[in-house]
Amino acid sequence: MSPIIYMKQVKKRYQTGAVAFEALKGINLIVNPGEFIAVVGPSGSGKSTLMNIMGCLDVPSSGIYKLEDELVNKMTHNQLADIRNQKIGFVFQAFNLLPYATAFENVEVPLLFAKVNGKKRRARVIELLARVGLADKAGNRPTEMSGGEMQRVAIARALANEPDIILADEPTGNLDSKSGSGIVSLFDELHSAGKTIVIITHDMNIAQHAQRLVRLKDGLMDTGTEDPQLATAS
Amino acid sequence: MHLITIYNMFVRDFRKQRKRITLTLIALMWGTISIMLLLAFGEGLHYQLSLNQKGMGSNIGVMWAGQTSIPFKGMGKGRRIHLYKEDPAFLAERIPEIRTIGGEYSRWGVRLKYRDKLLSEHCTGIPPEFEEMRHHIPQAGGRMINQLDMDAKRRVAFIGSQLKERLFEDEDPIGKVVMMNNMPFTIIGVMIEKMQMSNYEGMDEDVIAIPATTFKAIFGDAYLDDIVYKAHDPNQMAVIEKKIFEAMGQRYKFDPADDRALSIWDTVEGQKEMSNMLMGIKVFLGIIGFLTLLIAGVGVANIMYVSIRERTREIGIKMAVGARRAVILWQFLIEAMMITFLGGFFGMAISWALTEGFKKVPIDSDVLEFMGRPTVSPEIGLIVIAILGLMGLFSGLFPALRAASVSPVESLRYE
Ligand SMILES: Nc1ncnc2c1ncn2[C@@H]1O[C@H](COP(=O)(O)OP(=O)(O)OP(=O)(O)O)[C@@H](O)[C@H]1O
Ligand SMILES: [Mg+2]
Predict the structure, then answer these.
(1) ipTM of the complex
(2) What is the pTM of this model?
(3) How far is B297 from chain A (nearest CA, A)?
(4) What is the mean predicted confidence (pLDDT) over B223-239?
(5) In terms of Cα–Cα distance, which of B235, B212, B219, B207 is closest to B55?
(6) Which of these, B23, B28, B15, lies nearest to B337 by C-alpha position?
(7) Residue nearest atom 27 in ligand 1 by C-alpha distance
(8) Domain of A205: which CATH number?
(9) Cβ within 8 Å, pair B324-A90
(10) Using CB atoms, which residue from B12, B321, B412 is nearest to A105?
(11) What is the number of structural domains in chain A?
């Protein structure tokens, strides 16, 4: 089985004025279809940087990144946009919902970019909201929802075009533990439904849900084969 | 492009921007109204002035006799030159560029009496050619002096519209007899009302005109007061003038280069100057209007920049879920265009309504008689639409380009 994500010697260098900073110093990572992976590591270790590259929001400075056997490095802006629309669902710590739009409209956005026609699109949105348990909140705006509900809307949006991969950057970081665990069980469900999931977390209880742990430190990863049990012990 | 997508996004984003968009719309409406009304005023002024100009006749020249200022063939300078009743025919024969020509006698202070009214007025003795040349056009029910009147030296009179009011008020003057210096004259026609910007020898609306032959017979004037001629082609006025000096110089023995011997008023030249001046006024009004509109345009650009800055995160979100750069670009471009066109549309509608309203105001007032009515011509509409279009494009393009070129990661980080 060929890997869904393949990274070899991926580096990311940030240039701030005259100062260059290497946030990723050579990542070698393989993710197979259907895997559930947790990325952990201290603040500033490069987790978000890695996730942004994985999600095609950013491109590596050097190294090879292949997504479903396609080389991402040299893709055009449009190709990257289409991948973000079709193949990847991104979930953020800060939810990143459009503040003036309703839950329904937020979920609808990726479908608009995918040019799904009106009737099909509406049906799809309703189905997605039901899937995250928010069928009755379709008309609510972000200000009229709890953090947990907002994150569910964000997950529904991430699922809009049936992507194979769900990437989540500290999805429970802004939530209390109760809503957090609701979100985590949603990821478990998605995992059982066959999605590939990569999640960044500081919370080892959440990391335990993953099959595999990737530990980052100073832009480099420890061998990603560690057992989650072991990681908790340390 | 996926117009539906863009439209959907627009309708959705519009709601949030309502207050700011309303303010910009008002600025745009204001700008559009200023440019429209200023241009409309220019147009009305132009129309009115050319109407007034036509009142005296178009493509005409008026010639008066003067005094020589250059010694010629042994004769000293300061000799008086006179115009005789045979001169028009002489010039018509010599100068083919002349289309029509006629001599005019003039006398101020003739006494007119009709019933109990006694007036002191201006009388001219003119040939029938003045109907065409000087727009001495009769109102319905009357006629101008004709050749029979000339040949028979009839005591008939053609009067200006204002003089008619003063003498006859509401009465029908045709066929009535007025006494001029105690001689009876029958009124044969009243001149149409006309706007007259320029005149020599008084306004046409106040004149009492009689056949030139009758004039000479009763007043006994030895010389014509002036000769009026009309060119076939307005571009030949200068040629005609030169030929007149040559022909008359030969006939009355003065140097053709002596510009004091005759004085000629070339109204075509005047019309050109007038139309240049008018063009100047129109351009000036247009520029003021344009600047006002430009300020509104800057307002649109500013709103777009602010709006884009405030929506940086939103742009990042849209990009993160798969918006192509073009979608973002079009979104803001269309937004700017929609705002511009909406404001422009309302502004144009209001301006149009205002100028339509102006049409209801009677033109009696002296101001309107001079200024004319503001008129929205199709050209003005097109000019304003073109300006609005360009403005919408430019005020939207640069902000939109900036919005579309930010990286998704950067915009998502933006607080
Ligand atoms: N745009 C940028 N320009 C310069 N430096 C950056 C930029 N983005 C990230 N960095 C730096 O790269 C390093 C890694 O950042 P990153 O956000 O990936 O960390 P992280 O592991 O996600 O941290 P946290 O757990 O706090 O979210 C940090 O030192 C950060 O300061
Ligand atoms: Mg991070």
Answers:
(1) 0.91
(2) 0.67
(3) 27
(4) 89
(5) B207
(6) B28
(7) A43
(8) 3.40.50.300
(9) no
(10) B12
(11) 1
